[in-house]
Amino acid sequence: MGRYGYARVSTTRQQTDNQVTDLTREGVPEGGIVTETISGATAWKSRPELRKLVRRLQAGDSLTVVKLDRLGRNALDVLTLIDLLKKRGISVRILNLGIDTSGAGGRLFLLLLAGFAEFERNIIRERVLSGLETAKAKGTRLGRKPALPDDAIAQARRLKAQGLSAREVGKLLHVSKMTAWRAMNS
């Protein structure tokens, strides 16, 4: 019966050190801890390190995480993973909640918490979309910076009106043919 741990952070600015410390304190050997930097919104099957760990686990093993959201923020995805592990005889422990999915009570509590994790993700998404809408309303240009400034776009349109091709306009403006074409036809 092996003890394994999974620690995840979303960005390279974050570190898994605290999670690893908590996992080792709970008896998970350092060699059994897998760390990964990837968004919690990413499905577990699309997380290379977690996928390798799941393949390595055998009946009787346990997978420990510090918090439920380390496994993911999508309730269906987390529950699918836990169900797969349970069918293979592998339990999941969530330290901050004191949950062990090997029992019926742990499974029920986990269903509730997974729903809350998805709810939290949806709230964050709504806030981000609201922020983007506010920025648009204020006239903030979103997305990638344009390849050409407004005056160069106007010049590209004038050159098109004079009969120049996208390739010729691109050479004059020192941009690719496609960038010139987009500017000429915007």
UniProtKB/TrEMBL annotation:
Single Gene Ontology MF annotation: DNA binding
Lineage of origin: Bacteria, Pseudomonadati, Pseudomonadota, Alphaproteobacteria, Acetobacterales
Keyword DNA-binding on entry: yes
Entry protein name: Resolvase
PANTHER family: DNA-INVERTASE FROM LAMBDOID PROPHAGE (PTHR30461), SERINE RECOMBINASE PINE-RELATED (PTHR30461:SF2)
Keywords: DNA integration, DNA recombination, DNA-binding
Organism: Neoasaia chiangmaiensis
Record-stated family: Belongs to the site-specific recombinase resolvase family.
SMART domains in alphabetical order: Resolvase (SM00857)
Cross-referenced CDD domains: SR_ResInv
The keyword DNA-binding appears for this protein: yes
